[in-house]
């Protein structure tokens, strides 16, 4: 029997006790799993980066701000969608949040319906991003099993080169190319050259 899927979670980071309680009371009756933290440091120490999740973070908190928390998550490679909330919103804050990749910047007092809609959107996005990240991780794992020569052949296959051209470029026999091509396609679970090209493109580190 397969283990039950872990539901997506809404992380809330706000130093205001009343705001944390308010968001719990708002979101849990809607069926959302919610975990609250009183500071960015507490969140970083307690959240699960492997879980499908979105983050609702206040801007102004003692210690690390919500904007700085988001920037730290981005630095760590997180793809978690982030909604920034604040009682002291201004244009520079909003611009900074959006440039970092926040999906919204919402001023207090919060419009509950707007927040609910944005959280639903964030969780849908989180599910999509998580699936993509898992696919990329699996591709990179398979790619690491290729030998150096198999990787050379794979790169040329992905570039659209035929076996004879690959043999000429690498200075090896056609039979050797065929063997390495077969092994590379098998290890990568690729069915066509186009499929292999898509995988190699996905596996490239982001700049």
Automatic annotation (TrEMBL):
Which residue numbers delimit the Response regulatory domain? Answer: 9-123
Q: Which GO terms describe its biological process?
A: phosphorelay signal transduction system; regulation of DNA-templated transcription
What InterPro entries does the entry give?
CheY-like_superfamily, Sig_transdc_resp-reg_C-effctor, Sig_transdc_resp-reg_receiver, Tscrpt_reg_LuxR_C, WH-like_DNA-bd_sf
Single GO MF descriptor: DNA binding
Q: Which UniProt keywords apply?
A: DNA-binding, Phosphoprotein, Transcription, Transcription regulation, Two-component regulatory system
- What positions are modified (4-aspartylphosphate)? 58
Residue ranges of domain HTH luxR-type in the record: 139-204
Write down what this protein is called.
Transcriptional regulatory protein FixJ
Q: Could you read off the lineage of the organism from its UniProt record?
A: Bacteria, Pseudomonadati, Pseudomonadota, Alphaproteobacteria, Hyphomicrobiales
Q: Which gene encodes it?
A: fixJ_2
């Amino acid at each position: 029997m397969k283990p039950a899927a872990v539901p997506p979670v809404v992380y809330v980071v706000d130093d205001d006790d009343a705001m944390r309680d308010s968001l719990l009371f708002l979101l849990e009756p809607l069926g959302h799993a919610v975990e609250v933290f009183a500071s960015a440091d507490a969140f970083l120490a307690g959240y699960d980066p492997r879980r499908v999740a979105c983050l609702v973070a206040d801007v102004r908190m003692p210690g690390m701000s919500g904007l700085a928390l988001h920037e730290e998550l981005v630095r760590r490679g997180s793809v978690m969608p982030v909604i920034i909330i604040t009682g002291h919103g201004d244009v520079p804050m909003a611009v900074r949040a959006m440039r970092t990749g926040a999906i919204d910047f919402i001023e207090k007092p919060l419009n509950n319906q707007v927040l609910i809609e944005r959280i639903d959107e964030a969780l849908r996005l989180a599910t999509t991003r998580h699936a993509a990240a898992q696919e990329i991780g699996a591709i990179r794992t398979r790619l690491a099993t290729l030998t150096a020569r198999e990787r050379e052949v794979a790169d040329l296959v992905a570039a659209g080169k035929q076996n004879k051209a690959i043999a000429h470029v690498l200075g090896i026999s056609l039979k050797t190319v065929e063997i390495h091509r077969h092994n590379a396609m098998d290890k990568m679970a690729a069915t066509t050259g186009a499929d292999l090209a898509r995988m190699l493109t996905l596996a490239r580190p982001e700049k």
